[in-house]
Amino acid sequence: MEINVWGARGSYICPQRSYSYYGGNTTCLEMISSGGNTLILDAGSGIIPLGREIIKSNKIIKDFHILLTHTHIDHLQGFPFFMPIYLQETKIHIHCGRWDVSAVSQTFERLFATQYSPIKTMKNLQAEIQFHEMDEFEIYNIMDFQVIPVRTQHTTDTYAYKITDEDGSTFGFITDHEIDNPDINNQIIKEFYGCNLVFHDGQLDKSEYSWQKGWGHSTVEKAIENGLRMNTPHLGIFHHSPDHQDAVIDSIRNDILASYNKDMKISFIREGDKFILPI
Ligand SMILES: [Zn+2]
Ligand SMILES: [Zn+2]
User: Fold this and answer.
1) In this predicted structure, what is the pLDDT of residue 8?
2) What is the CATH number of the domain that holds 257?
3) pLDDT tens-place string over residues 128-170
4) Domain that holds residue 10
5) CA 30 – ligand 1 centroid, Å
């Protein structure tokens, strides 16, 4: 499978030049299966250029599938500007872990309300929007991807996803996860054990964590610890803090890698990165 990063930032968009190396768009990944199908992960602002690119490429997709981790705004805010929602004869399938799915559709509906948008209601969209809920630990087939949702420790219902392609390659997407509750974290380690590539929340440094404990995010150190416990060959640090300009991420990276001596490869994920699995 192929994974293209359209947004690696957490919390809010950072358009300034000092963020341009790692990128300022919020969470969105494009996954392309070995069979050529596209699965989109989250609808942060990165989904806006992705939608534009899909339209420009003349790729004909009638059914778009978006896998949603949760409804915090940094994972949703691009949706009203995702061009395919304005196309006739198009369906947008939003797959999410099981929480109150009517609340999820209501949250989406609010994105288009008069107070925020000229669209007024989702009913005015040309595309048909459908919501599909999933249970934790169950296996779902979305096109030729196999998806397993696993709950993370966050401040609202949030799911990590293990995604397997027909070619056997596996990807773990664990964003917005605080490593504090061993019961939740051990389930994550177990389900994602041995994935070819794992993206993991690494929003904070240690001093930030001391005052942001309980906000549902991990330090880079804890993310690496989790990656090692999962026995993944490649860990991607993801969901970068808006307080971390490029120079800050570079210095965190250099400090960590200076004393790091394990085999697991560590990447600090950048917008525009492309990964091909299996490596
Ligand atoms: Zn987030
Ligand atoms: Zn969140």
Assistant:
1) 98
2) 3.60.15.10
3) 999 999 999 999 999 999 999 999 999 999 999 999 999 999 9
4) 2-276
5) 17
The predicted-structure confidence for 3-37, as pLDDT tens digits, reads as follows 999 999 999 999 999 999 999 999 999 999 999 99
DSSP characters for 77-144?
Answer: TTGGG-GGGGSTT-EEEEEEESS-HHHHHHHHHHHTSTTT-TT-SGGGSSSEEEEEEE-TT--EEETT
Domains contained in the chain, number:
1
Query: What is the H or E stretch that residue 186 is in?
Result: helix 182-191
Spacing, Cα 138 to ligand 2 middle (Å): 22
**Distance between Cα 88 and ligand 1 center (Å):** 31
pLDDT tens digits, 169-184: 999 999 999 999 999 9
Which ligand does the CA of 201 lie closest to? 1
The Å distance, Cα 166 to ligand 2 centre, comes to 30
- CA of 167 relative to ligand 2 center, distance in Å: 31
d(CA 97, CA 131): 11
Ligand 1 centroid–CA 218 distance in Å is 11
Closest ligand relative to 154 C-alpha: 2
Cα-to-centroid distance, 238 and ligand 2 (Å):
13
- Largest distance between two CA atoms of the chain: 55
Model's pTM, two decimal places?
0.97
